[in-house]
Design brief:
Blueprint lengths: L27 E6 L5 E2 L14 E5 L6 H5 L31 E3 L1 H7 L4 E5 L9 H14 L4 E5 L3 H13 L2 E7 L4 H8 L5 E4 L3 H14 L3 E3 L5 H6 L2 H10 L7 E5 L4 H15 L9 E7 L4 H8 L24 H11 L2 E5 L1 H15 L5 H15 L9 E5 L8 H4 L12 H7 L3
Parallel strand pairs: 5-13, 6-7, 6-9, 7-8, 10-11, 10-13, 11-12
Antiparallel strand pairs: 1-2, 1-3, 4-5
């Protein structure tokens, strides 16, 4: 019998699961509850059998040097010793995401009055968002657990990444999205899979449906449901890369978009792991979360001084961040408060302005999530919540070509002319 995705009970012992090969999850030792610390064996589990808290990957002894990492491939597998993946991960077909550019954003910094500003540009990943990172880790888990189907509920980018990675790995994919999703994000999935399922409802409805299917169907790996602990670890690579690209040190401040909140919590976890492994020096840093006003349950709780998240029904052009009931929202609150950061939100008009600001200052065309992050950065400076004299990083998590409609009415040809110099001269552009 193999370790399957059909088992619904969770054993509490941590012995090796039948059907799992040795080292299937690398240095990972167990799954540990974020709330009560209870541990369960490595397998397709995501909720604590004791308290229903979220499970996350716990590791055994790990030792890795900067030199070993630097000698690795120019993708996320250079950090494989710190991920729940086998040592031979590079040999199984995957999209090899990561090691994206960290751009010094001098023009944007000057515009906003920030002395040192960097943009971690994850729009250049294989399917043009940071989701390729998490999906690569989820794919490894799905493979090791002998999944038959690779699936996800998605706000768009995740579906693109799952569909592409599944195609490359030769595993059947089924991706679920809200039916009102931007057309380019639908096409960007449908080119890779014949099983794109559009659901009449919000992302939160789609997510609920996915959990139901995961309970009914055997052998389905839903990347952000039953293999979520492994999936989420992939976002740590953003934090690892930022530190490595800064010359093995942490920034003073970082601004990260928040949908479920998973990415923000994992970038923080990555910084903590680098410190505890002795790969960077310990120092204070502030973490800031960015949301769109039309779906800002975490920002609302932050501003109200509350510890719980009140779910909302999203109403925003920022569909990639439109999760009304964010699974990791309370952890985002904790991290932003503990580090001295904040969670802020901006209107859809500010998001559009943020997209154009990043494009025109740095030549980076971001999607609405990055517009949100850029606009929140501006607001944080203007409201005195972010210190412009401290070194700051923002993460651009996605690509503007997927959300063209957001700015299509605001930009276009400055003039339409006949092909003659006289006609051009008359435009006044020269
Ligand atoms: C482009 C983009 N940025 C950020 C996020 C937020 O990620 P998380 O759910 O980990 O908070 C998403 C999630 O779908 C996304 O698509
Ligand atoms: Zn628990």
């Amino acid at each position: 019998m193999s370790a399957t995705l059909s088992e619904t009970t969770q054993d509490t012992d941590t012995t090796t699961r039948p059907g799992l090969r040795d080292g299937a999850f690398g240095n990972a030792r167990a799954l540990s509850c974020r709330e009560c610390g209870h541990e369960v064996e490595l397998g397709p589990f995501y909720a604590c059998p004791e308290c229903f808290g979220p499970l996350e990957v716990a590791y055994g002894e790990r030792a890795v040097t900067r030199e070993e990492i630097e000698a690795g491939p120019p993708n996320i597998w250079r950090y494989k010793a710190l991920l729940p993946v086998p040592t031979d991960i590079e040999s199984s077909p995957n999209t090899e995401p990561g090691f994206t550019r960290l751009l010094e954003a001098r023009n944007l910094g000057r515009e906003l009055g920030i002395d040192t500003l960097w943009v971690k540009d994850d729009s250049t990943n294989p399917t043009n968002s940071f989701k390729d990172r998490v999906v690569a880790c989820a794919l490894s888990a799905a493979r090791e657990l002998h999944a038959k189907v690779f699936a996800c509920p998605s706000t768009g980018n995740l579906a693109n990444a799952v569909a592409a990675a599944g195609a490359r790995a030769g595993i059947k994919t089924v991706v679920f999205i809200p039916a009102d999703l931007e057309k380019p994000k639908q096409v960007n999935s449908a080119v890779y899979t014949d099983s794109l399922v559009a659901v009449n409802g919000t992302y939160d409805d789609v997510n609920k449906l996915a959990s139901e299917i995961a309970g009914e169907e055997d052998g389905w790996a839903f990347v952000n449901v039953n293999v979520r602990p492994y999936y989420a670890e992939g976002s740590k690579t953003l934090g690892f890369e930022i530190a490595e690209q800064l010359g093995w040190r942490l920034p003073d401040q970082i601004v990260i978009p928040v949908a479920s909140g998973s990415q923000l919590t994992k970038v923080h976890k990555a910084f903590q792991e680098l410190v505890s492994l002795g790969l960077v020096e310990d120092k204070p840093y502030k973490v800031f979360g960015a949301q769109a006003h039309g779906c800002s349950p975490v920002s609302a709780a932050y501003k109200a001084g509350e510890d719980t998240i009140r779910p909302v029904r999203p109403d925003t052009i920022v569909k990639s961040l439109a999760i009304g009931n964010p699974a990791d929202g309370i952890y985002v609150l904790d991290i932003c408060r503990q580090t001295g950061g904040a969670v802020e939100d901006v209107t859809d008009d500010e998001v559009r302005a943020g997209i154009l600001l990043l494009a025109r200052t740095e030549g980076v065309f971001t999607e609405t999530a990055g517009g949100t992050t850029t606009a929140v950065l501006r607001k944080l400076v203007e409201t005195g919540q972010l210190d412009p004299s401290l070194e700051t990083v923002i993460i651009n998590t996605g690509m503007g070509l997927k959300t063209l409609d957001a700015v299509a009415d605001q930009v276009g040809a400055a003039a339409t002319i006949d092909p003659s110099y006289t006609a051009f001269a008359a435009t006044g552009i020269a």
